[in-house]
Write a structure and sequence with these properties.
Elements lengths: L1 E6 L4 E3 L17 H7 L7 E6 L13 E5 L14 E5 L5 E10 L2 E5 L9 E6 L8 H6 L5
Antiparallel strand pairs: 1-2, 1-8, 3-8, 4-7, 5-6, 6-7
């Protein structure tokens, strides 16, 4: 398939260009609502799927937004707005944070997915359909 992705403000997140994307239908690799929208379509169909935030990356979680003193961050990290740093949550799980601001010695960090809280519109062109191999079914992914 080939797809374009926009948010509901019309901002293009991904243009439909480049190599086609393959996925194993039914393996849970796509958002469930998107996968349901693609069900029963055939080659050449163009499918538009509108996903609310809860159907995609979820709502923004304010518990993942932090203000941290710059001097408390590891000095080996290159801290700049738009950059990423890795930290951990209360349970010790690794979390990637986006640096959203640096002001007066404080760094604003956001652990939400960049599309959290946004509704998304997928426009998908189905370019090919084939049965999965036994190995693909076993591994739950497309094997090129």
């Amino acid at each position: 398939m080939q797809y374009s992705l926009t948010n509901t403000d019309g901002v293009v997140v991904r243009e439909a260009s480049g190599a086609p994307v393959s996925y194993l239908h039914g393996a849970g690799l796509l958002f469930p609502k998107l996968e349901n929208e693609l069900e029963s379509h055939t080659i050449g169909d163009i499918v538009t799927a509108r996903l609310l935030a809860d159907d995609a990356f979820g709502k923004r979680n304010l518990d993942l937004v932090h203000q941290v003193p710059l001097d408390e961050l590891p000095s080996e990290d290159d801290i700049e707005v738009g950059g990423k740093i890795t930290g951990s949550d209360e349970d010790g799980n690794e979390v990637t944070f986006s640096v959203t601001g640096i002001e007066e010695g404080m760094v604003s960090l956001d652990g939400n997915h960049p599309f959290a809280g946004q509704s998304l519109v997928f426009e998908v062109e189905i370019q090919a359909i084939r049965d999965a191999t036994e190995e693909e079914i076993r591994q739950q992914k497309v094997i090129a």
